[in-house]
Amino acid sequence: MKTFFFIFSFVLLSVTASFAQDEDSQGAKIRERMTEYIQKRLGLSNAEAERFSPVFLNYFNDLRKTNQDSKEDRLVQQQKIVELRLNYRNQFKNIMGEKRSNDVFIYERDFIQEVKDIRRERMQGGGGGGPRNKRAGLLQ
User: Fold this and answer.
1) How far is Cα 11 from Cα 24, in angstroms, rounded to an integer?
2) CA pair distance 36, 88, nearest whole angstrom
3) In the chain, what are the domain boundaries?
4) How confident is the model at residue 18 (pLDDT cuts 50, 70, 90)?
5) d(CA 114, CA 2)
6) Are 33 and 138 in contact (CB under 8 A)?
7) What is the pTM of this model?
């Protein structure tokens, strides 16, 4: 009986770890796609893109942490996000200038909305081909 529970526990932990790795992998892909999407929309040069990517990754990780840490109080969460964006806007400004540093957050919002739309369409069973599938490349 102990052997059964041991094997069952081992299998359960293995499956759980496998799903966690899949989610991390999917999250990494989405972060990568978002970075590429924003770089393309901003029209960054290769030099700017090289400087932008690590700063944006830090911003993305800080934003995720802020959302997780302050989800209890929505107003506090919004205030912390504004403070975070102001801080990173200054860092982006050093890379690409003021106008495009503000546009980062617009394109971030656009990307997130497109991902939500794609997921909603997939959940509704709209997995067929067509013009919508051009956007599906964001998640692949």
Assistant:
1) 20
2) 18
3) 28-122
4) very low
5) 50
6) yes
7) 0.70
